[in-house]
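This protein record is not my work; I was only asked to verify it. The record follows directly below this note.
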Amino acid sequence: MTYSPKASSAFNDTWNRSTFISPQSGMCSFCTEECSGTCEIALAAVLGMKAVYPTNTGVNQVASEKDYPIDFSHFNINGRVFGATGANPTFEEANIYNVKLERVFGKYNEVKMTMPVILPALIKMNWEDYFAGAAMAGVCCVIGEDAKNKDPELIMENGKVVNFPMLGKILDSFRNYYRGYGQIILQCNVEDDMNGVPEYAIKVHKADAIELKFGQSAKGTQPVVRLKNREEALKKQAAGSLVYPDPSGPGMEEAHKEGVCPNFYYYSRLPFWDEEYLVPRIAELREMGAKNIYLKMAGYDPQDLEKVLRIGSKAEVDMITFDGAGGGSGYSPTKMMNEWGLPPVVMEEAICRIVDKMKEEGCWIPAITITGGFASEDQVFKSLAYGEGKVTAVGICRAAMTASMMGKNIGEQIKKGEVPKNFKKYGDTVEEIFGDLADLRALYGKKANEFSTGAIGVFSYLRKIAFGVQHFAALNRKFDIAYLDRKDLIPITRDAKDLIQGKWFE
């Protein structure tokens, strides 16, 4: 058995010519020189370094194609028919609708969420509906790193941001629908931090929350970008970016004159943050007016996971999001999405062990979010149960974005009188077809009739997740998700049994 994907991918529209595949390499077992060049190797032969990244970019989100040997599907959900925990054992009280999903976290500023879900960092696609839907649903959401470079009106002086008006529009996409639950958070990578984005966001746009990013399951940093020419490379370098090779280095001017300059690339800096820098930096951001501070980490080496948790504890951050393998990104190295980091359930096991140790030491434990390819209520329930109270929320990104895009597209078709065939049985209008619109009117009044169907799509999708979790919890006779634990899970494979018994890392 192999877990290696084939030498083909939807990321770059490549495919294997043959159905006979060499398992280890992913290549066709019979490779012929007469092939027209359909696979990833042919693509690399032509594009070279560019083939590290997906060629299908633009308004797309991509994710891992690897079939991991263990994930939450290796567990079934338990069920019970006796008793009631978190409610009186009566028909009226102990029922699905009364399962408590609300979450509260925060060291100095309390943040409430209607359900244990967070929408992780995004800025590439349909962010208006993504963030609006999060506010409607009452959950937290995160503005993706490097958002400043999406703003055509961005102005920087001496390497610092002085004008980033798009940020106000992004924040307002959430704030306009805020109803006391959730929070919109600005993620900042090393470059953002160096460029003074946190200060600008807090002082100019009154941003409440900042997330400092160590890593992500699909990529370590922002992607390498090829520059058009030496002139553009010099401009990037002057603005403070890392550019390779050095466009101002020895012989480059002569090479430019002779037309033999190499390609130039700029690349985001690796996060060399440590406790010595972050603890006072986080205190500084709080003094500026930040109400909540978050960290973002990937499923890296358990020693690094512990170090980030301990830095977060000492700095008293409010939440740390840990991103496991299998998630996605708008633009990540193809193989990194498939082969990078700990799978979510394995990562969660490592984190739970570390948290237990830190609790015994009397450490402050930030709220914890687990993410990495989650899309359905069974997966959310399993992660919460596996975390046994140590996991506050589950991050759902690509699926929530899909809900926003589908809600938007289907809504536009309905308004044109072109109701998709599979939805005709529900009616002919947005009001008839979008089932949860009535609940939005109950929250916001008749103005909900004017809400974007993309945002309604996010709200409705998250309501489905919440209602599904309530079913699983109630049928385990637990009427508050705070009581979920590993006894609510049934390992159905040997690997799952080893993991839940603590034998995986032996």
User: Anything to note?
Assistant: The chain is about 35% helix and 15% strand. The domain at 72-222+272-401+470-500 is CATH 3.20.20.70 (TIM Barrel). The first strand starts at residue 62 and ends at 63.
